[in-house]
Amino acid sequence: MQDLERVPALTKKKRKKRANRFILWLGWFFLIGLCAVLFFRSPLSKIDTIEVMGNDMVSTSQIIQISELSKGNSFFTVHRKKIEAALISLPEIKTAAVESHFPGKVSITIEENKRIAYMIGEEGNITPVLENGIQLENRNWNDRFIDKPLIREWEDKTMLTKLAIELKKVDPSVLSLISEIKPASKEDPLRLVLFMKDGYEVQTSIRNFAKNMNWYPAFVANLMQEGNPKGVIMLFDGKWFIPYENPVGEDEEKVNENS
């Protein structure tokens, strides 16, 4: 009988412990919830710095506008992939990487398609041509430094893409010597005329353009060593030189490409 009388007492103690444990856990959940609410309402959960790096053609303000980020927005709702996809939809931007750095900082790193040349329009306006062959027709460059070849009288956009691919492969030291590029004739869309900064004229083709143009410094050095005047350098599968005082087609002085 004594053993039976002790059972209710033990049961009451267990119930009391369970109740106390429940209240304790409820208190912890309330405290955690309160801290979470206070945190998400505090400045620590907000964006306070937006950093943009690597951009030149596209302004920082334009990049931030496209990203739809703004100071004061929630730091934890930055849609990285969405922002990157929106940015690389611009022809100027090759890659974009978005990173969040707690507390409150979002950085956007941009890699732009390089400017490979500039197009001169009929009215004299200058616009960049990118390494992917896209001409940025709405981006005026007249008041900025021109550090790449100028392209004149160009109509065929397909050929422009092919030329851009070749220009990208030209040695930078040779590319810096090219002043202007234009089609030689409408009848032969592959043939080009180049005006060089050192006074020579070059005739070549889009086909194997980079390979032929990378011969230019050695060819000119050979001409100067032999005391030749300025003239037209023909850089095709065969390579030869025509002095300016000679009509094209007469007395062509051929220079062996191995010389």
Description:
With 259 residues, the chain is α/β, with parallel strands linked by helices. It has two domains: 45-112, Ubiquitin-like (UB roll) (Roll); 115-254, Rossmann fold (3-Layer(aba) Sandwich), CATH 3.40.50.10960. The protein has seven helices and twelve strands. It has helices spanning 2-40, 60-67, 80-88, 157-169, 172-175, 209-213, 216-225, and strands spanning 49-53, 93-101, 105-112, 115-120, 126-130, 150-151, 178-183, 191-196, 201-205, 231-235, 239-243, 253-254. A nine-stranded mixed sheet has the order 5-4-6-7-8-9-10-11-12. Strands 1-3-2 form a three-stranded mixed sheet, with helices on one face. A hairpin with a 5-residue loop joins strand 4 and strand 5 (126-130). The longest helix has 39 residues, at 2-40. The N and C termini lie far apart (121 Å). Mean pLDDT is 84; it is low at 248-259.
Structural class by helix and strand composition? alpha/beta
How far apart are the first and last residues' alpha carbons, in Å? 121 Å
β-sheet strand percentage: 15-25%
> How do the strands of the widest beta sheet line up side by side?
5-4-6-7-8-9-10-11-12
Just name the CATH architecture of the largest domain: 3-Layer(aba) Sandwich
The gyration radius over C-alpha positions equals 35 Å
How many domain modules? 2
Number of helices: 7
Calculate the mean pLDDT score and round it. Answer: 84
Helix content: 25-40%
Could you say what the CATH topology of the largest domain is called?
Rossmann fold
**Rough shape?**
elongated
Work out the oligomeric state of the chains in this entry. single chain
Largest beta-sheet characterization: 9 strands, mixed
Q: SSE string, helix = H, strand = E?
A: HEHHEEEEEHHEEEHHEEE
CATH class categorisation of the largest domain: Alpha Beta
